[in-house]
């Protein structure tokens, strides 16, 4: 796989993503946005990875070479960059976030968005960025762009000491936190919450949670893009074990794990049990539909059938979409969904520019707990209606695997919205290629535990052993 994935750029630094590549990507992005705006103003941010500022400098030089005007806003989360672009709509043509999200420290990458934080994917502009890269003039021996951080100039606001050393721009930080606070409806009083930000950018959210009256117990909260304690990928169970232990040891009512760039959240209940991300989608969909009857809710096709059932029971309409933040956001915007959720822990909010945000998701889960005055396990229990395999990875030939399962299950209801989905009345599975890694991923759901084991064994006969 090349560095241009389905909805972002990712690669090992510097073997796959280096100074010249970043420069040419900046040029291509600048040329793309120049189609709709003369001298486009482009916001550039970085997460905590040590290679971020270096890549950002070269990317900004490329933006200049392409006729754009870069504005470097420094360290931030991806949702903060989306807010910076969309919060002053019409002023900014787009944004580039230097991040590799949950990937290990040796990786870095770029997430792109247009005005109003509209995402850019392979289908909506990234191929054009890649095609324009060879046209860039030769870069200099050193980047010439000098960060100015002019977007948020003005009266500087006092920031909590825990975030000041990061070099965050105070106006950016306070502006986004003010935006986020609007989602806090009814926080449970004095609730003890465990948070593991995996040394990613999510550590900057902790002061906000404490300001809402929560008793926050945090681990791995220092922003360190070398990720010294564990990968910033909350989808892997091994990465959740320190948080599970913390919840149980400190008798916390809730555990929250946040990924490297602060746009994904995964939850642990008060007993220390991980909660499926699709169950959080179902829970929050029910809450949003209680406020807005008849609303539309988007879910990704790996999610439990229970999600669509609960949306419809709550008087809403459930819409199924392929995996990936750019696809989810585009569909939400097109049809006007109030909320959307992905199995990877991305949750999207109409009232936040249809963008994903870990901290807004945390506040909405706390709203659900506060409004209903129940522990998370009680809220989730009636939503668990089926038995799931979880996402299982395989290293194999994608085309051959798709062909084999379509032949084996030809009597099922088959669609190819994203990979291959085969559905029967009492069980179903989806097999799809990863958008970010050289893997094929399986999600399987059945009506009973016995049937789940039987069908998983059946599929392993075709797919072989799971990847380590």
N-end to C-end Cα span: 19 Å
User: Could you report the average pLDDT, rounded to the nearest whole number?
Assistant: 92
* Individual helix count: 14
Uncertain segments are 148-165
Model description:
The structure is a single chain. With 468 residues, the chain is of the alpha/beta class. It has four domains: 9-135, 3-Layer(aba) Sandwich (Alpha-D-Glucose-1,6-Bisphosphate, Chain A, domain 3), CATH 3.40.120.10; 192-273, 3-Layer(aba) Sandwich (Alpha-D-Glucose-1,6-Bisphosphate, Chain A, domain 3); 276-383, Alpha-D-Glucose-1,6-Bisphosphate, subunit A, domain 3 (Alpha-D-Glucose-1,6-Bisphosphate, Chain A, domain 3, 3-Layer(aba) Sandwich), CATH 3.40.120.10; 387-463, TATA-Binding Protein (2-Layer Sandwich), CATH 3.30.310.50. The chain has 14 helices and 21 strands. The strands form four sheets. Strands 16, 17, 18, 19, 20 and 21 form a six-stranded antiparallel beta sheet that branches. α1 crosses α2. It is globular and about 65 Å long. The two termini are 19 Å apart. 52% of the residues are buried.
Entry summary:
The chain has 468 residues and is an alpha/beta fold. Helix content is 34%, strand content 20%.
Key traits:
468 residues; Alpha-D-Glucose-1,6-Bisphosphate, Chain A, domain 3; alpha/beta; single chain; 5-stranded mixed beta sheet; 4 domains; 14 helices; 6-stranded antiparallel beta sheet
Secondary structure elements and their pairing?
Layout (H helix, E strand, L loop, with lengths): L8 E4 L6 H16 L6 E6 L5 H14 L3 E7 L2 H9 L7 E5 L8 E8 L11 H7 L37 H12 L10 E5 L9 H6 L3 E5 L17 H14 L3 E5 L6 E4 L5 E2 L1 H15 L4 E5 L4 H9 L3 E5 L3 H11 L3 E3 L5 E3 L5 E2 L1 H15 L3 H5 L6 E2 L3 E3 L3 H11 L4 E3 L4 E4 L3 E7 L6 E7 L2 H15 L5
Helix pairs in contact: 1-2, 1-4, 8-9
């Amino acid at each position: 796989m090349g560095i241009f994935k389905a909805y972002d750029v990712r690669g090992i630094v510097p073997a796959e993503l280096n100074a010249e590549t970043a420069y040419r990507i900046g040029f291509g992005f600048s040329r793309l946005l120049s189609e709709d705006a003369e001298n486009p103003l482009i916001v550039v941010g970085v997460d905590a990875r040590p290679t971020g500022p270096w890549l950002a400098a070269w990317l900004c030089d490329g933006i200049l070479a392409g006729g754009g005007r870069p504005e470097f806003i420094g360290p931030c989360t991806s949702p903060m960059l989306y807010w910076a672009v969309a919060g002053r709509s019409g002023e900014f043509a787009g944004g580039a976030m230097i991040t590799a999200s949950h990937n290990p420290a040796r990786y870095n990458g770029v997430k792109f968005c247009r005005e109003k934080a509209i995402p850019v994917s392979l289908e909506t502009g990234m191929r054009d960025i890649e095609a324009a890269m060879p046209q860039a003039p030769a870069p200099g021996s050193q980047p010439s762009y000098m960060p100015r951080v002019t977007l948020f100039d003005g009266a500087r606001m006092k920031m909590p000491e825990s975030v000041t050393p990061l070099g965050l721009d105070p106006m950016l930080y306070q502006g986004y936190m003010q935006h986020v606070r609007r989602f806090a409806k009814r926080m449970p009083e004095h609730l003890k919450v465990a948070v593991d930000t995996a040394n990613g950018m999510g550590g900057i959210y902790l002061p906000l949670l404490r300001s809402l009256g929560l008793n926050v117990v945090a681990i791995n909260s220092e922003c360190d893009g070398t990720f010294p304690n564990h990968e910033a990928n909350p989808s892997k169970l091994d990465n959740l074990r320190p948080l599970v232990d913390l919840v149980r040891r400190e008798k916390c009512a809730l555990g929250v794990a946040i990924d490297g760039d602060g746009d994904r959240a995964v939850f642990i209940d008060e007993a220390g049990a991980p909660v499926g991300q699709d169950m959080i989608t179902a829970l929050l969909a029910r809450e949003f539909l209680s406020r807005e009857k008849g609303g539309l809710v988007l879910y990704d096709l790996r999610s439990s059938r229970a999600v669509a059932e609960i949306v419809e029971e709550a008087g809403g309409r459930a819409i199924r979409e392929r995996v990936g933040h750019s696809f989810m956001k585009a569909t939400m915007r097109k049809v006007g969904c109030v909320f959307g959720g992905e199995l990877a822990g991305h949750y999207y909010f109409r009232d936040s520019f249809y963008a994903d945000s870990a901290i807004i998701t945390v506040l909405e889960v706390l709203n659900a707990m506060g409004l209903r005055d129940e522990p998370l396990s009680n809220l989730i229990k009636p939503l668990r209606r089926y038995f799931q395999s979880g996402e299982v990875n395989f290293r194999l030939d994608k085309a051959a695997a798709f062909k084999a399962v379509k032949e084996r299950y030809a009597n099922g209801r088959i669609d190819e919205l994203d990979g291959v989905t085969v559905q029967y009345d009492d069980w179903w599975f989806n097999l799809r290629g990863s958008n970010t890694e050289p893997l094929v991923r399986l999600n399987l759901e059945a009506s009973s535990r016995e049937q789940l084991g039987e069908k998983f064994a059946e599929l392993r006969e075709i797919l072989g052993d799971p990847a380590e």
